[in-house]
Amino acid sequence: MKTILPFLLAAVVVGLSAPGTSAATLVENGKPVATIVISEEALAAPLYTPLSQVAVASIPKARKIRLAAEELQRTIEKMTGAKLPIVGDNVPVTGNAVLIGESKKTAPLNLNVPRGMTPELKDEGYLIWAGGDTLVLAGNDDGPYNGTFFAVAEFLERQGVRWFMPGEFGEYIPKTATIKITDIEFRDKPSFIMRGWTVGHPSPSIREDEGLWRLRHKQTLKASEFFALPGDGHLSSYIPGINSEYSLDKEFTDAHPEYYARRLDGSIDLHMVNLSHPDVPKLVAEKIKARIKVEREKNPLFNSLGFAPYDGRPMDLGRETMRNLNQGFKDLLGREGVKDELSSTEEWIQFVNKVTEEVVKDYPGFIITTNGYSNRNLPPEGVSIHPNMGIMFAAIFADLLHAFDDPKSYQQQLHGQMLQRWAELNPRVFIYSYNFPGLASVLTAQPETRKLARNMPLIEKWGVIGFSDEQIHSWMAGGIPTFYTRVKLHWNVNTDVKVLLDDFFEKWYGPARVPSQAFWDALEDAMESTIMLGHEDRVMPYVYSDELIAVLDKNQAEAEKLATEEPYQIRVHLDRLILEHLKGYMAMTHAADEEGDFAKAVEWADSMMKQRAEIHQINKAFHATEQYSSGEYFWSLAQRKAHYGKIRDMFNGTTGTLIVKAERNVPFILDPADKGRMGRWYMPGFDRSQWQTVDTSRPFFLQVPGTYTEDGVPYTGYMWYVFEVDVPQSAIGKPISLYAPLVAAEAWTWINGEYVGHRPYNEAYIRKDMEMGFDVTRQVREGKNVIGVRVSTGSNHLEAAEGFLGSLFLYSPKPTSSATAGL
After folding, report:
1. Alpha helices of 363-439 — where are they, by DSSP H?
2. Could you write out the DSSP letters of every residue in 696-755?
3. Residues 181, 72: Cα–Cα separation, whole Å
């Protein structure tokens, strides 16, 4: 039986079943009239603190049951003021009883409480049963399961209790004098086996609250207890010639160079194996079997192990592997014609198949997991997957703003098709996703409840078993509705999200519900309707708009008028800070990209820091102070501020002096056949009268007709930008450098018809590596100078390289400055 609504609405007296059946009372007029009964073993057991990544299977069942009983006791006391006593199952109980977990008292009832742990780990579940004067809240507590606690959490939600976010700040506990229940038998089990994320909240003061919040929403605390996570680089633990401390046995590696992969230059990669050598799978399997033996001595239930190559695009580029095993498919994030950017799925899966086959000879039923990630995330063609394998699918390219079935997003359609195919090939596919939101993010608000509501039923339908996401809870980015919706759908994909959110907004914002809900709905409208695709915040300046900011401001002002009392006032104030942080982000971006005013960009970054500090003071879950741990990868606000400060100093006399800034709007033309270099389109006298004019502060594909399809596929190839700048006589004789803050993804430059240099290809999302600089002292002359820039997006549509993004400058670096040419 599955519940469709996530809960029953609270009332003074709450029933669990149809009216007219016998009723038991737990609390009456503020007085306890029921006793909580647990096993004697559970009564004597110490409490345990549920934390992210703590091994639940190592916690005795008695301790889990004790935690569940105290959760019920504590919450009912908060609701009613009545503290139900907790006794052991050897104590005679008269009157009403609440039986928590299995005990001597539940045995005579023959309720068939879920229990046990079979290899595929589909035994999780719980029971709520009420009959006469007895209420039973029990579930499967074997291994990594927390069924009894889940039963208690479900019961309390049916009384109207809500845990919108970790800690007391996020609680909603209704006040009532009486709690009565009616007869019921309700059984429940999850939609997904694995339900959680791998990192948890970084602030120590939040970790305990977060762990308890996860249990209250029936999440798994450590996904690897279900099936092992194949972490980046774990392969190195099992490569012959590498010991347990990752140090090399040089005598062995020197004697057997044939066991190791070859890099593009022919050198040996000792941390990647030769995927075509017949001896290597057996050697790797022997080391895995040795590890299994050790682990099973500690834990007889140890039944899965994962490994994967190191992060990036590791490959075996050896001749035999590339000739006989590689199928020549371009990796999704690769470029056509680049050998080390090919997909390596086929050779990798065949290798892992052979390793698994060796392992299961000695350990039948054991599961080996690996990852479908990076240059291995395309499902294999012509290769089956061993029945004892599992796949952790990690689509780093994925558009995070749209659903799998959104016709505007070819990326999400592709992502869904790949996931579906992996699940057809393997029964243990689970997802390793990136939900900051965004892999590179500055924590601007990006709610995604609608995407979740559309995606989760599809994921379950395809047969995916769950999630172990790279997730850090900076609540200011996703917003409470996103995280709350997500955990509910993890347990039950049939949750009615509209009912869930209507209830949330009513209880969280009180009298300010309507404008506050309109505030978050407006952001969702922007996410859902945008044509932009991507998994980094570089797309967000074109998702947010002045019109959106105006709507958010209007809704926020209305909410502030209505929220005159606590706790609603502080909750609405948090939205104000989130909005001001978003406005600061847009102003910072405009200052840098449109105005070329990097001093102002630094000031806006500082204002965003201040808003974060105030948010952190209100509640640490909304934003952690640590950079990496707050979910800002690769291009954090601190990094951006430093970058903008560096450019400011290049122009203000500190490390250099600005000579001239080029106009934003310049002649532009596409060059799909690469005719421009031989045609010398960069020459000062070349006729550009038929070229288009584009704004260099915006992606070319948002301005040039035909360069962006209805489902989001951008033009890839060559294009030209030509700038004209007037250089004063006072600059001549000084060192002169050309500088552009961001050109994606590769560029070549000429000045006054003379070739200057090449800025190599960089992947578009790594923004700090996208600047372009050359020493042009020799090429620049007094008066008008013509600067031609040939730009290539690369052949990767997923990157959606924007071309120029920002102004072009000439400046004079100080001789002692490191901020000179050749950046």
Report:
1. 410-425
2. TTS-GGGTSTTSB-TT-PBP-SEEEEEEEEEE-GGGTTS--EEEES-EESEEEEEETTEE
3. 15
Whole-structure pTM value: 0.94
Which pLDDT score is estimated for 765?
A: 82
Q: Is 138 helix (H, G, I), strand (E, B) or coil?
A: strand
Number of C-beta neighbours around residue 95 at 10 A: 11
Residue with tokens 């503290």: 83
The helix/strand/coil state of 283 is: helix
Q: How many other CB atoms are found less than 10 A from the CB of residue 130?
A: 24
* Residue 3: strand, helix, or coil: coil
Rounded Cα distance between 333 and 795, Å, is 9
Interhelix angle 204-216/147-158, nearest 10 degrees: 80
24 within 8 A of 134, measured Cβ to Cβ: yes
Outline where 257-312 has alpha helix (H): 280-298
Structure tokens given for 564: 């005159």
How many whole angstroms separate alpha carbon 575 and alpha carbon 698? 29
**How does pLDDT run across 509-546, given as a tens digit for each residue?**
999 999 999 999 999 999 999 999 988 889 999 999 99
Quick one: tokens of 22? 């016998």
Quick one: 268 exposed, middle or buried, by C-beta within 10 A (0-12, 13-18, 19+)?
Answer: middle
User: Which pLDDT does position 10 carry in this prediction?
Assistant: 31
**Which residue's entry shows tokens 């001749």?**
319
759: phi then psi, degrees, rounded to nearest 5: -100, 115
Identify the CA nearest to 471 among candidates 456, 461, 486.
486
Q: 656-661 and 809-813: which strand pairing? A: antiparallel
**CA distances (Å), 513 to each of 288, 344, 348, in order?**
56, 51, 52
Q: For residue 810, give the amino acid letter.
A: L
Per-residue pLDDT of 313-334, as tens digits, reads 999 999 999 999 999 999 998 9
Cis peptide before 387 (omega within 30 of 0): no
Integer CA distances (angstroms), 183 to 28, 129, 131, 357, in order: 18, 7, 5, 52
Residue 106 CB burial class (10 angstroms; 0-12, 13-18, ≥19): buried
The backbone torsions φ and ψ at residue 420, rounded to the nearest 5 degrees and listed phi first, read: -60, -40
Q: How many CB atoms lie under 10 A from the CB of residue 51? A: 16
Question: What counts of helices (H) and strands (E) characterise the chain?
Answer: 19, 31
Q: Who's near 802: CB < 8 A, 6+ residues apart? A: 538, 698, 699, 700, 701, 742, 744, 764
Q: Which residues are CB-contacts of 2 (< 8 A; sequence separation ≥ 6)?
A: 188, 492, 494
**Euclidean distance between CA atoms 190 and 150, whole angstroms:** 11
Dump the DSSP string for 443-510.
------HHHHHHHHHHHHHHT--EEEEB----HHHH-HHHHHHHHHHHH-TT--HHHHHHHHHHHHHG
Amino acid at 56: V
**Nearest to 437, CA basis, from 397, 407, 401:** 401
Helix (H, G, I), strand (E, B) or coil at 211: helix
Pick from 393, 412, 414, 417: nearest CA to 401: 412
89-144 residue pLDDT tens: 999 998 999 999 999 999 999 999 999 999 999 999 999 999 999 999 999 999 99
Q: In sequence order, which ranges of 223-379 are alpha helices (DSSP H)?
A: 250-255, 280-298, 319-324, 345-362
Complete edge-to-edge strand list for the sheet that includes strand 746-751:
692-695, 665-671, 718-727, 783-792, 746-751, 754-759
Q: Retrieve residue 58's tokens.
A: 């190592």
Q: Which long-range contacts (CB under 8 A, 24 or more apart) does 635-641 make?
A: 635/440, 635/442, 635/536, 635/537, 635/766, 635/767, 635/768, 636/442, 637/442, 637/443, 637/605, 637/608, 637/609, 637/612, 639/768, 640/442, 640/588, 640/601, 640/605, 641/602, 641/605, 641/606, 641/609
- Nearest partner of 599 among 558, 648, 635, 537, judged by Cα: 648
316's tokens? 């075996």
**Cα–Cα distances in angstroms (integers) from residue 405 to residues 416, 455, 459, 595, in the given order:** 8, 8, 11, 38
